[in-house]
Amino acid sequence: MKIRKLNKKEKIPMDLLLLADPSEKMIHNYLKQGVCFVGELDGQIIGVFVLSQQEPNIVEIMNIAVDEDYQGKGIGKQLIHHAIKSAKEEAYQTIEIGTGNSSIGQLTLYQKCGFRIVGIDRDFFVRNYPEPIYENGIHCRDMIRLVKEL
To answer: pTM higher than 0.90 for the full model?
Structure first.
């Protein structure tokens, strides 16, 4: 898989971004400030992530998603490692990521990649999304915040 920055003239892979975040409004907001990367296989975009500077030394993975046909094949792990590498190359000291309390697979993956849970933003999804979100049979209410020191 080849991972690269999305060209400004290219179409945003909204279908993939919506897999990780059901709000186009939220996605457009962090795309304005962030850099979108895509993972390609045989010319097809199968993965995406967005990096956004939060503070001078801190960058956050705002969205990370893999095409449903390619999930469970290590693509997400490759995208995360590329995000970490990119953050190091840009001299960031910390990389952050947040996910829902119902995102069991994502929580496992992020911790396997060296992220540590540092906090919970209670009712984040209730406050920021008009429709309830359910995943793995669990009401997604809280944002679990994770950090990796670089």
So the answer is: yes
